[in-house]
């Protein structure tokens, strides 16, 4: 009876196409039409600007707790770019660039952070699940959707997102196991942004990469520079097309960094150094993609200025539309169950009595100084 190494079929590769300064490894450059490259950059820029705007809106009391995505614009966008419209996406909560690409409405996105269920309503014709906060649970839904795609045989696939912290949840492992055994068209993208609130990546798991966790489930895996949109497009294209052609699931570990706080309820200075943040600011996905596009003569200051103006005007309109929304604050007591539970009925009565007592005054809105915005009173916990 020998004692010998067991050959393991799966291997884990690391991929990057642009270096930290945006220089290209030409051998790996994906084919992307010029118009798409410009649109991708504009969406990255819009994501950055909307993220900044959301921070301001939160500080002014116009939306509730907000979870920024600064520094993580490239990964979700690349995946969304490679999906077809009829494919599915099960996001977590830091995939804003993908939401914009997939056609989510900005006013509804703001409504979600304003605590209103109207923000969970995905536009007709967009096959996405809403923002999901119970960590990693979205992978179970994603796996189920992908299985449905396979059973229907309509050539659609699903991409699901999760954070590095989410890989410690049972849901992550159950979804991978099921996806692999049933060979479903599911692409799991781990946004490894190095932190799960204040828990660093090295305390999350002792395995040298997150990608290699896929090996135990018999799933192919790739570790990718998640701040390099070109590398992410190469990886996502491969994985999505493999899934579409019956090759089963893939795990992509996108190595990125959360440049801002976990949420506006968090102070990252308490647990990480300025040097670490500076190190990652030098790897910001936006300037890297920008310098690639400037090198290809697809972008210059003038073109970017026009983009900035268009983005600003679109955001102004969306913020105004959000602040005009007057969603029913009692909807939250009716949203979940067909028949309201006694406990929810009690809570609804409590809120009604509280607001009737005049305790529900709200801060002014951006548009109409002294009117009331019920949204400003609500918040989410993530
Ligand atoms: C099941 C569950 N447990 C705990 C929480 C509280 N919580 C919210 S975010 C978070 C950390 C998630 O870290 P990670 O998966 O790395 O995602 P990131 O926030 O870094 O994008 C935790 C523990 C939650 N939302 N759901
Ligand atoms: Mg994380």
Structure description:
The protein is α/β, with parallel strands linked by helices and about 375 residues long. Helix content is about 40%, strand content about 10%. The chain is built from 12 helices and 8 strands. It has helices at about 35-60, 75-80, 95-100, 105-115, 135-150, 170-180, 200-205, 230-245, 275-280, 285-295, 300-325, 340-355, and strands at about 10-15, 90, 160-165, 185-190, 195, 200, 220-225, 250-255. The chain has a 6-stranded parallel beta sheet with strand order 1-7-8-4-3-2, sandwiched between helices. Helix 8 (about 230-245) links the parallel strand 7 and strand 8. Helix 1 (about 35-60) packs antiparallel against helix 10 and helix 2 (about 75-80) runs parallel beside helix 3 (about 95-100). The chain is globular, with a radius of gyration of 22 Å. Mean pLDDT is about 95; it is low at about 370-375. Magnesium ion binds near residues 163, 164, 165, 193 and 196.
């Amino acid at each position: 009876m020998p004692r010998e190494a067991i050959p393991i079929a799966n291997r884990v590769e690391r991929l990057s196409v642009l270096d930290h300064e945006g220089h290209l490894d030409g051998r790996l450059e994906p084919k992307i039409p010029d118009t798409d490259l410009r649109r991708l950059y504009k969406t990255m820029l819009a994501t950055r600007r909307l993220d900044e705007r959301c921070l301001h809106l939160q500080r002014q009391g116009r939306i509730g707790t907000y979870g920024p995505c600064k520094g993580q614009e490239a990964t979700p966008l690349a995946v969304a770019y490679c999906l077809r419209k009829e494919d599915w996406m099960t996001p977590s909560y830091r995939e804003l660039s993908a939401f914009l690409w997939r056609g989510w409405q900005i006013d509804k996105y703001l409504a979600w952070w304003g605590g209103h269920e109207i923000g969970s309503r995905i536009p007709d014709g967009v096959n996405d699940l809403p923002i999901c906060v119970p960590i990693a649970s979205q992978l179970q839904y994603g796996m189920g959707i992908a299985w449905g795609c396979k059973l229907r045989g309509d050539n659609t696939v699903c991409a699901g997102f999760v954070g590095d912290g989410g890989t410690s949840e049972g849901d992550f492992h159950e979804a991978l196991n099921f996806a692999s055994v049933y060979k479903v068209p599911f692409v799991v993208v781990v946004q490894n942004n190095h932190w799960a609130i204040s828990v660093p990546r090295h305390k999350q798991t002792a395995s040298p990469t997150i990608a290699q966790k896929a090996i135990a489930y018999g799933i192919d895996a790739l570790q990718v520079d998640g701040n390099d949109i070109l590398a992410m497009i190469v990886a996502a294209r491969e994985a999505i097309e493999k899934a579409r052609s019956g090759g089963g699931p893939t795990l992509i570990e996108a190595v990125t960094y959360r440049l801002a706080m976990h949420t506006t309820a968090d102070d990252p200075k308490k647990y990480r150094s300025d040097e670490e943040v500076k190190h990652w600011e030098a790897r910001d996905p936006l300037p890297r993609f920008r310098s690639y596009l400037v090198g290809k003569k697809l972008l210059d200051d003038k073109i970017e200025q026009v983009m900035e103006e268009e983005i600003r005007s679109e955001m102004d309109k969306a913020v105004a539309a959000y602040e005009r929304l007057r969603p029913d604050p009692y909807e939250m007591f009716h949203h979940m169950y067909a028949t309201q539970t006694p406990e929810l009925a009690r809570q609804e009565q409590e809120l009604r009595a509280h607001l009737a007592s005049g305790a529900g005054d709200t801060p002014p809105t951006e548009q109409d100084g002294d009117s009331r915005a019920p949204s400003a009173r609500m918040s989410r916990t993530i």
